[in-house]
Amino acid sequence: MSNQQIRSPLPGTFYRRPAPDKPPFKEEGDDVAVGDTVGLIEVMKTFHEVKSDCAGSVSKFLVGNEDAVMAGQPLAEIA
Amino acid sequence: MPVKVISPGLATSVQDLGRPGYYHLGIPISGGMDRLALRSANLLVGNAEGAAALETVFLGPELEFTEDAIVAVAGAELPPLVDGEPRETWASFKVKAGQRLSFNYLEAGARAYIAVSGGIDVPPALGSRSTYALGALGGLEGRNLQVGDVVALGESGNSVREGRSVPGHLRRLPGTPAELRAIPGLYWHRITEESKASFFDDTWKVASEADRIGYRFQKGRSLNFNERTQPFGAGSDPSNIVDSCYPYGSIQVPGGTEPIVLHRDAVSGGGYFMVGTVISADMDLIGQLQPNMDTKFVEVDLETALAARRERRNHLERIRESVKE
After folding, report:
1. B178-313: CATH number
2. Mean pLDDT of chain B
């Protein structure tokens, strides 16, 4: 099966954790189901949940925590 | 007849050219942040330029049409899809009853204006259909669109045709870095000569705290203030002033650190020092800035600002000519 990518719906800042003192939504190697939250995008004083539209496991995060991202930019690879 | 909101996008609201005349009472002017794009979208579908349209930011909505309509999307490069088939931005196209309008990922800019033949028909509030969400005024129940909303359309003339477009050279988006021309203001003397220079020399970045109320910028050097004894009512922070009016486009710098340019939904007064004001011709560009974009403030005088305002008016005239049949 080929790798799929989760893309950012918005431009903004990417966060892998729901809050600074909480563990990341997903680690590399974790299973992902359709609809699982994999991160947050902060923009316009709001946090928007990024949900997976595919199932599998996280093979790699393609951007770091708190990185600036563009709309449509791949955030993670799902194998 | 109505349009159903299948998904609302991030923050989609009804906007027209705004609600001037009440700012002195604390009610902001509201209206589209990029009014040149709003006017263009309306012209493309045969509406009056000031008809109400949908302003959508970063992430477009999904809308289902219940009757045939002519639609145009102008401003940001947010590629429209009709039942999944791509359509051009800055051009009019047909959406038939039962079809869905959705959007691909944003490619450039920030805000797209979705004009529909007949215009968005919500009750005017204080002379405008614009949404002022903070004050729950205008638009659809004073708020952004939500899933399940039904948006009414006005009557459209029969002369509207698909396939009109605004030529590429008349479409306006910020460059890289974005350049915002500004005039130093009443409080310019409050900062040091060094800070006067650094404000215009530095490249700022759009912060994530950027919305219809104001756009915040960061990463430039902090401003230093000339020493003074703070007057009564100004508080102890040197970036505070005795409360004053905030013009549309004024650049306040709380604490001297991160400039905020006030936009269409801003408050009309307060106690932050303002370094200057972005000229009216460049306010539309701010509505098209994405987070983290490099931005420079460029110092100009009043004469240049007025010339730029005339040039913008001529630009609009050229858009009007280009969509005439």
Report:
1. 2.40.100.10
2. 96
